[in-house]
């Protein structure tokens, strides 16, 4: 068993350098590529995106470009990718990532976590003074 996991992070917010993911993969060696996109401003942008462009939006679209750039190398080098780029809509992000992987012929597992969307409960929270 390896006691060391080498992590390379490629983002700190929506709009960070697109080239960073590829730089981490090429500059390695790394075991996991991470991307943290959910700065406060990003959350507002994603909410606006869902309101103006539809319920299937609400994720960090630039992450998809990064996936296209690194998916084949990640498969070849057995690098895992962990990201919160799904933002307000992790399911749609996962579906878009799966489409890209299929187009590229890359066999990587895609998983997402959801269930923390309290948007529909906000009115009752406010009525209760919370």
Automatic annotation (TrEMBL):
Acyclic terpene utilisation N-terminal domain: residues covered: 5-129
InterPro entries for this protein: AtuA_N (IPR010839)
Stored Pfam families: AtuA
Protein name as catalogued: Acyclic terpene utilisation N-terminal domain-containing protein
Species whose genome carries this gene: marine metagenome
């Amino acid at each position: 068993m390896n006691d060391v996991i080498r992590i390379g992070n490629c983002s700190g917010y929506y709009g960070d350098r697109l080239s960073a993911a590829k730089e981490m993969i090429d500059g390695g060696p790394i075991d996991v590529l991470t991307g943290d996109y959910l700065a406060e401003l990003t959350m507002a942008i994603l909410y606006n995106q869902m309101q103006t462009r539809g319920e299937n939006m609400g994720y960090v679209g630039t992450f998809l470009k990064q996936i296209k750039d690194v998916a084949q190398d990640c498969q070849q080098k057995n690098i895992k990718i962990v990201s919160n780029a799904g933002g307000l809509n992790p399911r749609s992000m996962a579906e878009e990532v799966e489409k890209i992987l299929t187009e590229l012929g890359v066999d990587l597992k895609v998983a997402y976590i959801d269930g923390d969307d309290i948007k529909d409960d906000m009115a009752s929270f406010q009525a209760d003074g919370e």
